[in-house]
């Protein structure tokens, strides 16, 4: 089950078809954090069982994801907060079925769900990047993480009577309407107690006491001790029964809110985030590794690679890669290698000896049914 799951993530990534809010496809910081952490754990498990080849293969993919996090999910041209143009965005959108492998977070446009509108993706922010710290992929004091904290605090944080709380992202349309009316497909996204808990976990990772955030969540609860999905974060609307800092008409109790509270209490007791995965923390924070690979799959066909990297082509069946770097004047053959434990096939192309500006052109001859793929791909060497 574990190796099948790891192989699925390798073949389907790095673009998710649905972010954790079940609304958008693209490069999601929270999904990428989850996938990287999961793959590192799978590789650690394989190592313990003596499957070093499979472990190295999975580590290589996880390292590649970790190396590209900022390229995929950080804008350098954000307009939301003066002086902070560089920060994580909520998600860098792209078609999950035909993803753009070089989707630029500075230029992509996102269509928000629930009537949220069309916006430059660089100017839609949320706390999803905090999962990178939570799972041990990035240091809490990483400069981009800290800049991103500054941005979301100025854009989506609300100081409620009980304490700070955050909205999911700016221009969110999922929540009680401005007049207090119920969400009916459109509305205004309100503050979520779970996000106060997620911020508490970040504060713990940064070396600060999360107790104020625990107390805030406790004070969000109603008289029966129940936590809601969302809180009213505008002035009182007595006629609509909306009171500043109190539950809206959203789901209550929300088990996710209670789980986040319980996790934060336990994390404070232990002195470390309960979700921090130590193998990932060692690999990417304590002793950061760099990736020597660029990964190409049929779902994720890279169009360019930096010279010196190893271009790894991964497919699901045995094939011969028919390739050239001279426009087809000379044809070369390279058989894929079977990664037996994962049941994947791959071919590695070291690019260090290829001239910058050259273009790798290739296709596949599939061995299992003796057929040509019928099209060529090209990868430019930068």
What does this structure look like?
Helices cover 31% and strands 20% of the residues. β7 (157-160) and β8 form a beta hairpin. The two termini are 38 Å apart. It folds into two domains: 2-286, Glycosyltransferase; 293-381, Immunoglobulins (Immunoglobulin-like, Sandwich). α1 packs antiparallel against α2 and α7 runs antiparallel to α8 (211-220). The longest helix has 20 residues, at 29-48. The protein has 382 residues and is α+β, with helices and mostly antiparallel strands. It has ten helices and 19 strands.
At the third CATH level, what is the topology name of the largest domain? Answer: Glycosyltransferase
Low-confidence stretches: none
Radius of gyration: 23 Å
Give the helix/strand class. alpha+beta
The proportion of residues forming helix, as a percent range, comes to 25-40%
CATH domain class of the largest domain = Mainly Alpha
How much beta, percentage-wise?
15-25%
DSSP E strands, number? 19
Shape: elongated
**Total of DSSP H or I helical runs spanning 4+ residues:** 10
Distance from N terminus to C terminus (CA atoms, Å) equals 38 Å
Q: What's the mean pLDDT score? A: 96
**Helix and strand succession?**
HEHHHEEEEEHHEEEHHHHEEEEEEEEEE
Number of domains: 2
